[in-house]
Amino acid sequence: MASKPAPTPKWLNAREMKAWRSYIIASRRLLEALDGDLEGHDLSMADYEVLAQLSDAPGRRLRMSELAEIAMVSKSRLSHRMTVMEKAGWVRREMCTEDRRGSFAVMTDAGWKAIVKAAPSHVESVRSRFLNHLSSKDQEEMGKIFDRLQTELRNQFVDESGRK
């Protein structure tokens, strides 16, 4: 039985290619710059994101599975990040008493102090490297666009990971 030829991809046109490449280059450079700006606080962007999520959570704790889904990272990648952050004293893991297979990520006092110390310079970095280059209308439009993309990507992530 002969196999069917693969369908021809729908290649990007010039407008689509410009939008895509501009986004990729700018987002990578922005994340590298923001990451570099946190070096003085001994935090990476990944650390900051985990601490930010935990700082907003009730009791500064989230189930590891929920944190992985919010951050859109695999459980194994989050586990590795948590190991690094535990060594720094910023977080700890606690077993879930209701579900022995689950565990919580909990921000420690040292983690709270780290994010409180880093937050002012991080916010200034976000403003100077990103927000100050956008009009209010640009910010609103980007918010709508990326909310839509985030929702779709989160749904794809959940579908691909087998969770709902």
UniProtKB/TrEMBL annotation:
GO molecular function, one term: DNA-binding transcription factor activity
SMART domains for this protein: HTH_MARR (SM00347)
Domain HTH marR-type: 16-151
Gene3D superfamilies the record matches: Winged helix-like DNA-binding domain superfamily/Winged helix DNA-binding domain (1.10.10.10)
PROSITE patterns: HTH_MARR_2
GO biological process: response to stress
Pfam family, one: MarR_2
PANTHER family: MARR FAMILY REGULATORY PROTEIN, TRANSCRIPTIONAL REGULATOR, MARR FAMILY
The protein's name: Unannotated protein
Native source species: freshwater metagenome
